[in-house]
Design a protein that fits this description.
Largest sheet: 4 strands, mixed
Strand content: 15-25%
Order of helices and strands: EEEEHEE
Distance between the termini: 9 Å
Radius of gyration: 11 Å
Length: 76
């Protein structure tokens, strides 16, 4: 998965309200997505909260480019 180009870091109170992930994603690095992301189309995405994203250490989707959470670590 290529890295996201969005380097904006947001705090919990600035986090997007609608964040999704694909729990059955076969990628080695699970990613989080914004509502309407093309990668979610036709798949059973689950809406999750920002705390969940941070706790699991999910990676940004390179297609919809959601913002980063505080403490996000870029892996290449």
């Amino acid at each position: 998965v290529p890295p996201s180009t969005n380097k904006e870091v947001v705090s919990d109170d600035q986090a997007p309200e609608e964040i999704y992930w694909l729990p059955t994603n076969s990628d080695n690095m699970l990613t989080y997505h914004l509502k309407g992301c093309p990668q979610l189309e036709g798949k059973e995405a689950q809406k999750v909260n920002w705390e969940f994203v941070k706790t699991l250490g999910l990676r940004q989707c390179p297609e919809c480019n959601p913002p980063q959470y505080e403490g996000y670590v870029d892996t290449e």
